[in-house]
Amino acid sequence: MTKDVRHLPDRQLKGHNVTERLTNLAAIEARLDALIPNGIAEVPFRIVGNWLIRNHILLGCLRRSFSRNPRDSISAFPKSLAQRSITTLRHLLFASSIRARTSADSVYFKSNVRAFYLNRQPLTLWISTKREKFESIRRAMEFRSRLAPSPVFRTSRVVAQDTVFESHYILEELITGRPLGRTEDWILLVDKVLPSLFSLYDQEHLRHIPAAEIYNAEWIYQGVANSLSNVQNDKKWMIPPERFLKASEQCLHFSDETIALWRGHGDLNKTNLVVDADGGIVLLDWEWSREMPIAEEVIKLVPILSRQHPQLMHRLAMELEQRTEDPIAMPPKRQVLLATLKLIATHSNKMRRVKRWHRLASNLINGSDW
């Protein structure tokens, strides 16, 4: 593969490891020549955040902004990167450029290289670029087999894979659709998604361990306290900071209480729950799967349909109650609040996320019976 990085500042090249990522991508493409023709000329890419995007893809997004037919643009491009015409135009005019020989139309190169291909059937190539990430590819393949018999969920079809040798990869169909989150999805979430998730995870061994072994109470409390200055100006939903901190302190007093763990998805959010053209639900991105508290897994579903928080929280509490057999287990609603406080501490410097989780925690504190 040949590259021309004359237009790419050294600090950007080193900071993003572009050369290493593209070299790794080329090595894998050489092994996939039978599936993806690789005999192409050099093509220009633009740096857009942590992505390299082909110029013609950005031009397609720009045309879509001025077109009455939204299907004019190329659907394989990650839409969140250029949703507005001014943003796309700015990328085309001012973003750093790099020339490379690759059949990918866009490449994500921060940790795992995620390359989108446009052939007769759109494909996605996941590449583990670091040895410590190899296990994530294996986990993704393992959970695909578990998900296969689910009557509600499906996952993308695997075209080729290698989880044994260096440069692990999965080549799969590119899933297109809309994120779960419309108003009409409420019934779908409660009647199908939640029961299917719990049924899926019930296949795993459920165990209880002391909450103090999982959560760092001091770190969470400090993160919550630091985040309050970012949200206390929003008087529409915010409870007094003193009350918020007192409730947080009570929640973080664990004594000998236990928390239920299972091996979950690890990254449930509306971008990973996609409704396809046939109305089916596709569950994506299993590489973050790990053993984790049940409440930490399901709490990320709540922002999908924010207006239904109370009803959804009631349903989650019921599901948690059925799986809390330990006599000294933490009450379900408190498990959910604890998971929310951890998210607040984790994202204490990210204003939008902090406000979302503060809002949920405030609702839990106001209506909690723990």
Q: How would you explain this protein's 3D organization?
A:
The protein is α+β, with helices and mostly antiparallel strands. It folds into two domains: 3-174, no CATH class; 179-367, Aminoglycoside 3'-phosphotransferase, Chain: A, domain 2 (Alpha-Beta Complex), CATH 3.90.1200. The chain has helices spanning 10-16, 18-31, 55-65, 85-94, 134-147, 185-201, 217-231, 241-251, 294-298, 309-322, 332-346, 351-367; strands spanning 3-4, 43-48, 51-54, 97-100, 106-108, 112-117, 123-128, 153-154, 158-162, 169-173, 178-179, 207-210, 258-264, 273-275, 281-283, 290-293. The strands form three sheets. The chain has a nine-stranded antiparallel beta sheet with strand order 1-4-2-3-5-6-7-10-9. Strand 5 and strand 6 (112-117) form a beta hairpin. Residues 1-11 have low confidence and may be disordered.
Any descriptors?
Aminoglycoside 3'-phosphotransferase, Chain: A, domain 2, 12 helices, 16 strands, alpha+beta, 370 residues, nine-stranded antiparallel beta sheet, single chain
Shape: globular
Question: In this structure, how is the largest beta sheet organized?
Answer: 9 strands, antiparallel
| Annotation field: number of helices | 12
Q: How many angstroms separate the termini? A: 61 Å
Kindly report the spatial arrangement of strands forming the biggest sheet: 1-4-2-3-5-6-7-10-9
Q: What is the N-to-C order of secondary-structure elements (H for helix, E for strand)?
A: EHHEEHHEEEEHEEEEHEHHEEEEHHHH
| CATH topology name of the largest domain | Aminoglycoside 3'-phosphotransferase, Chain: A, domain 2
Mean pLDDT rating: 77
As a percent range, the share of strand residues is 15-25%
What's the total number of strands? Answer: 16
**Spatial extent as radius of gyration:** 23 Å
Number of domain units: 2
> Which regions contain 5 or more consecutive residues with pLDDT less than 50?
1-11
| Share of helical residues | 40-55%
Q: Based on the coordinates given, report the CATH architecture of the largest domain.
A: Alpha-Beta Complex
**Broad CATH class of the largest domain:** Alpha Beta
SS-based class: alpha+beta
